[in-house]
């Protein structure tokens, strides 16, 4: 690998992008377009995508005339690697690619959508197939890239399109905490295969979601107020957690948990309160579905075997039930049920593969960062 390619890979691995599941496929596309960073466009102009000049690329590039294989033309000269990465995603967000955001579930779906627009000339194999042939190589390069001690502070690269600015109040509830049971909240529930406590993981995830919400708000012009029910290793009763939502006049309340059972069961699930005890059941169901599928999709990017356990309705009654989702405490009444709420059980951390994924592998911080970004994106979409 030449040093330019290594620099590109290391930077891209460390950056946060809006669709982390598309990192490998876009890198594969750049490997193809730049001959693994050997083309003159890449070497002289940081243009790994063969991106043609367009006036609207001015924030990221200047115009350069260049003899490409398909004739002399005007191309983008990016000043540095980061401008290229940001510029690529900006390029894709232009009108010719309209609709790409509905084709982001997998790298294959993405490249099969944008490929015929990016490279209109028919070829055998197709352009998308040529990119897909490089997908595992690209994924391997990203997996091997050093992440530093923790790349969670990397900037969000892709900005949502203009005109979609949202505003709202979000309360994140990291489950458990402290050393004693408080008001129906246990100090800890699940313990990972290697001994890491759920209460620690919920707080880490909540902080990362908060960070990602800040990044997305800055990039997309959103006006968000984000609160945590706890920001240190203390326990709070379930009623007090829900009442944070009421006190802050929250639009969304998300309780974050990790599961454990028998070391075998695994998967992602979310819970809402059952209908007679839930004045905004339908809205909660829609919200929980959005969050659960975002978590599932993010985890599957890294571990395709992640099971979909769906959204479940809590049928427990009494203090053992999901009191943290209790409408009167959240501030919801029949007449004004503004706060949508759900609880997500991210994964079963007593399963070794899940513990490796989230805690033990070198890439675990990046997996948690992607997960947080997926949750943050779902929360903003829900507003
Ligand atoms: Zn829990």
From TrEMBL:
InterPro entries: MGlyc_endo_b_GlcNAc-like_dom, MurNAc-LAA_cat, N-acetylmuramoyl_amidase_3. One of its GO terms (cellular component) is outer membrane-bounded periplasmic space. The keyword Coiled coil does not apply. One of its GO terms (molecular function) is N-acetylmuramoyl-L-alanine amidase activity. Keywords: Hydrolase. SMART domains: Ami_3. Residues 305-329 are annotated as: Disordered. GO terms for biological process: peptidoglycan catabolic process. This is N-acetylmuramoyl-L-alanine amidase. Pfam families: Amidase_3, Glucosaminidase. The lineage of its organism: Bacteria, Bacillati, Cyanobacteriota, Cyanophyceae, Gloeobacterales. It comes from Gloeobacter kilaueensis (strain ATCC BAA-2537 / CCAP 1431/1 / ULC 316 / JS1). Residues 242-380 form the MurNAc-LAA domain.
